[in-house]
UniProtKB/TrEMBL annotation, chains A, B:
Keyword DNA damage listed: no
Name the UniProt record assigns to this protein: Acyl-CoA dehydrogenase
Domain of life: Bacteria
InterPro entries tied to this protein: Acyl-CoA_dh-like_C_dom, Acyl-CoA_Oxase/DH_mid-dom, Acyl-CoA_Oxase/DH_mid-dom_sf, AcylCo_DH-like_C, AcylCo_DH/oxidase_C, AcylCoA_DH/ox_N, AcylCoA_DH/ox_N_sf, AcylCoA_DH/oxidase_NM_dom_sf
Record keywords, A-Z: FAD, Flavoprotein, Oxidoreductase
Segments forming domain Acyl-CoA dehydrogenase/oxidase C-terminal: 275-431
Organismal lineage: Bacteria, Bacillati, Actinomycetota, Actinomycetes, Micromonosporales
Record family assignment: Belongs to the acyl-CoA dehydrogenase family.
Alphabetized GO MF terms: flavin adenine dinucleotide binding; oxidoreductase activity, acting on the CH-CH group of donors
């Protein structure tokens, strides 16, 4: 079996659980069917195995370098990206009008997860390009689409998103990059952008930067932000005034350049209209947040599969009761504590993958309220718990897992970025409790969806899920009853923890119902992982909700000079 | 303030909480007093700051190399180790009879924590030497003490412990290294040893390996193990038949060489008597386990102090209720979620440090039953939760924390070893529930000690601690009622989680009582951290004990082929 992802699980999730074949009733997807879905899954797995996985460690050991004029990335990266583009995978979920395959998002996500699991750093160049192209396809003029989107979808150009600045990481209202209107309708962009993934390299003919900036005279705060296309090269082929000020050297994710970019009167082109920057950027950002969650799941998943394979091979020790020293040692998968780590990981990564694909299907069917409320959870939950699977994969390997001779330590380091970028998990918590549960009655929609699953399930876990979801609703109402955002949000991260675990329990109950009484090891595995999640994980939610219900304001009130 | 450790906290713990001055009533410590304790603490802090901290990152970037004949370590390591030895710190807690300062263990631990926090990798060479010397002082002949212990205490020799083998990591009963008795009373040692920290280098005149091996004809299992002194060099100065087969390349802790050693008919000298190897090795191992816990606390502690300093400096965002974009950004320590991370970390690292020093004092006063039952917790709890503090320190730093330009990512990578070595945390869990709670009625002694603190406390937290401790006793009795070790131990790690959190809550209640009504920021900080631990952390114990009480055998019974 592949140690990148479990194809059988993906097929269960797509066909037996989410019934993605039913999407072909939508005229957009009418050309498709299980055969085309399987073909793209096959293709993705093959390219991921042949072109992405083999250079994963080399990318980590030989990170990109900058000699003052150009950035050097190991050649395997460019080769892999060309294979990805040549297979039509950049535009897989894009409309036929721009040359895309028009695959449902849910299938596209399953395909892309192969690349994220095989080599998260190389896959990031593609992910940013796809997000950038999707944004411009939504908001760009036909000319901008021809000039930028088509070459990106063909793999000739790559894209970035330039939001953060050295003085403003999570706080976009403090963005100071300046845009000055020019006589020819273009804008002159000046400022410094930080943490720009894929921000510079020689992997593409040019790089399309999407830059959040403030037009001179625009209001303070996020309302004054506009979005600009700033290409690395001008139409003449000359360099635009965008220079690489330096590369960041990271703990992991090293194969993706991460740049400080200096815009010094660079030529930029407004996207649509001034003052729309933040709303437009969130089009890309929301997709990127799902992409981050998907990357976190993918890394956790491959870590789990490596740990499982190791635990089946490695012989050591004997069960406690049978400590006959002359008996042969057993595979460590026989030890309950190793099983605990593996089963926990399975419940995290398969639960996380279910959430990713479930959410992607919401995009396909246009259930935007549920999509909106789930987005912060999709980003944050896997970045915490599938990272935990990577931590457990190291532990299952013992000393070997701590060495760079085994891949699991890199998976951990790579995944450790995910709780940070595209809005830290703390930001996701504020977004969930401060905005999404209220917006369009998001929490009610979520709790209704969970309740519908629980109501139609005959599993003994259903009442436990229902009780937890209802309690989440009660606690949320109580938190907001006073109408005091500071108080309501004092324990937002704990709220996210609770909501996340309830959502994953929901994913497990729903998978369990899809598995039904089907026989075989695969289905038994699903049932055991569900049981683990309900018995060992869901109970964590109780104390979290207790704390929230108590209205504890310790974190709000404390005098931080005493720390 | 130092960002290595908080001296004020150490003084509180040593003098206001543990009253270490009272130890001077013991004739062994009669020469000492607060002045000498403070002087050694001062000295430790100075040497840690001047000689250990400055090369911490360089040790990580330029890890030891082996050119086939000798191992090269950056020169700062040798210089630091000489400064440590020249200050008399190797023998600080050793008796005057071998030139030691005869400091109480509890003071020695506080001193050594400075070195672990400043540079865990360099400090490891000293830690292993001290543990090795202590073992030989206990079990060696006067001649062995003169030949090996004295030069180690003078810093001329260093020491190792050689237990694991490639096929036997945690499972010592499978050790196959062979010892053949020679006519001259020595033994010829042949076998391969793995994961040997400080296993080879040129930092000392020679290296004293303590090797666990099986005398030809000895019984299988741990009963057949004996311990041998195998020096790297023979008295003639020639090399013994111990060769470096290779260095392991680790995720962190890179400055400490970690070796595979080949013993090929090497000359070894028996320690005391055959068949005593495991018991003797546990003398060193138990001390090493406390040392590992101490290292985990120290790394978490310095990570916390770095995060706190960063959070006070870094300006970003505004509190949710006051989102006036024209208001200046606030230091991120003002955000409740950042406070959550800092206060959680403070509760982990100060709680962990309290446990380390409390346990060290048990050595001084000879309370061995309590010491024995606490040892697995002292090793495992900090290696899980103070590692969590390092994880949170990265998160507080945001993107910066993920770069190698800031030290917190190294602290995390360094600390990630601690749940693995000297017996994985899973092994500690089996030791606690399978052995220590039963041995000499260990759990009763522990619960009595906790109850005594709770009974004499007027804090509102006291009844909650008492209830948790009593429930732990009830659950333990229930687990063992059937007398079936496999069933009792099926969820041993969950048991360790629960016991660990209860013990740290005890440390907090006890510190709280020591703080009393004292005024000032320092004491307010202690009160807030205690409140955090009782309100946000101790409640985790409920679901863990529920699971244990349910007698869940999922992990024991499962058919692992379905994973």
């Amino acid at each position: 079996m592949s140690m990148i992802l479990n194809r059988r699980d993906l097929e269960f999730l797509l066909y037996e659980w989410l019934d993605v074949e039913s999407l072909t009733a939508d005229p957009r997807f009418a050309e498709h069917g299980r055969e085309t879905f399987d073909a793209v899954l096959d293709l993705s797995q093959q390219i991921a195995e042949r072109e992405f996985a083999p250079h994963n460690r080399r990318s980590d050991l030989e990170e990109p370098t900058f000699d003052g004029s150009a950035v050097t990335v190991i050649p395997e990266v460019g080769k892999a990206l060309r294979a990805f583009a040549d297979a039509g995978l950049i535009s897989a979920t894009f409309p036929a009008s721009v040359g895309g395959m028009e695959l449902p998002q849910v299938v596209g996500r399953a395909c892309f997860a192969w690349f994220q699991a095989a080599n998260i750093a190389t896959s990031a160049y593609s992910m940013l390009t796809m997000g950038n192209a999707a944004l411009l396809l939504e908001y760009g003029t036909p000319e901008q689409i021809d000039t930028y989107v088509r070459p990106m979808l063909e793999g000739r150009y790559t894209g970035t998103m330039c939001l953060s600045e050295p003085q403003a990481g999570s706080s976009l209202s403090d963005v100071t990059t300046r845009a000055e209107r020019q006589d020819d309708g273009s804008y002159s962009i000046t400022g410094s952008k930080m943490w720009i993934s894929a921000g510079d390299h020689e992997l593409s003919e040019t790089i399309v930067h999407l830059v959040l900036a403030r037009v001179v005279g625009a209001p303070a705060g996020v309302k004054g932000l506009s979005l600009f296309i700033v290409p690395k090269h001008l139409p003449s082929g000359a360099r635009n005034n965008v220079t690489l000020a330096g590369l960041n050297h990271k703990m992991g994710f090293r194969g993706t350049t991460n740049a400080v970019l200096a815009f010094d009167g660079a030529t930029g082109h407004l996207v649509q209209a001034e003052g729309q920057g933040l709303a437009q950027m969130f089009h890309m950002m929301n997709e990127a947040r799902i992409g981050v969650g998907s990357g976190a799941v993918a890394l956790g998943y491959t870590g789990y599969l490596h740990a499982l394979a190791y635990a089946r091979e490695r012989l050591q020790g004997r069960p406690p009761a049978g400590k006959d020293p002359s008996a042969p040692p057993v595979p460590i998968v026989r030890h309950p504590d190793v099983r605990r780590m593996l089963l926990a990981s399975k419940s995290y990564v398969e639960g996380g993958m279910a959430l990713i694909l479930y959410t992607a299907k919401l995009v396909d069917v246009g259930e935007t309220v549920l999509l909106d409320v789930l987005t912060p959870i999709v980003k944050a939950w896997p970045s915490q718990w599938c990272l935990r699977a990577n931590d457990l994969a190291i532990q299952v390997h013992g000393g070997y897992g701590y060495t760079r001779e085994y891949p699991v330590e890199q998976f951990y380091r790579d995944n450790r970025l995910n709780p940070i970028h595209e809005g830290t998990d703390g930001i996701q918590a504020l977004d969930l409790l401060g905005r999404k549960v209220l917006l369009n009655d998001g929490l009610r929609v979520l709790v209704s969806a969970i309740s519908a699953t629980a109501d139609s399930s005959s599993s003994p876990y259903a009442p436990r899920l229902l009780a937890a979801a209802q309690r989440l609703a009660t606690v949320t109402a109580k938190l907001w009853a006073a109408g005091d955002p500071d108080k309501a949000l004092a324990n937002a991260s704990t709220y996210l923890d609770a909501a996340g675990h309830i959502v994953i329990a929901w994913m497990w109950l729903s998978q369990l119902d899809a598995a039904g009484d089907a026989e075989g090891a695969f289905y038994d595995g699903k049932r055991l992982a569900a049981r683990y999640f309900f018995d060992h994980e869901l109970p964590r939610v109780g104390p979290w909700l207790d704390l929230l219900e108590s209205g504890d304001t310790l974190l709000l009130d404390l005098d931080d000079t005493v720390l």
